[in-house]
Amino acid sequence: MTKKVNRVNEQAKPQQVEDNVVVTLRYELTVDGEVIDSSDNDEPIVFIQGQQDIIPGLEKAIYNMKVGETKSVHVPPEEGYGLIDPDAFQEVSRDEFPADIPLEPGIELEMKDEDGETIFAVISSVDKDTVKLDFNEPLAGKDLYFEVEIMDLRPATAEELDHGHVHDDGHMHEED
Ligand code: ZN
To answer: Other CB atoms closer than 10 Å to residue 60's CB: what's the count?
Structure first.
């Protein structure tokens, strides 16, 4: 029998959230009184604290939290997905839309830009000849209400710090 040495565990577990610690975070996000995202339906998020991997207001709020600790965090738009950009609206002639697209406010559209990149827009308003599209990030201008829980903390490896993101064991990692 050979003894397995786990080098990662030689480094002490961080006691609280601080820069360069890999955080596993459970969260629930409420916007406009509705839960719109939750790690109970998806996976908890895993990221390196202090690397701007998550929105600034949330990163700021979780410093010094310990494993098992929970917190309610309000993130204003300025520290979340930004304010609504009035220049991110565009008027497009109705005839440019295929007939099968319902032209109603709130309809989400997937489009290609000049470079063939996929971009998303929401119909903001419709009149006789034109459709106004909103290219803002959907959560721009929104107050975000998070319920968070720290699930795990571990030191980031030198390679993870070098790359600025988490390398998930057991998953293929595409070099960047
Ligand atoms: Zn990497």
So the answer is: 12
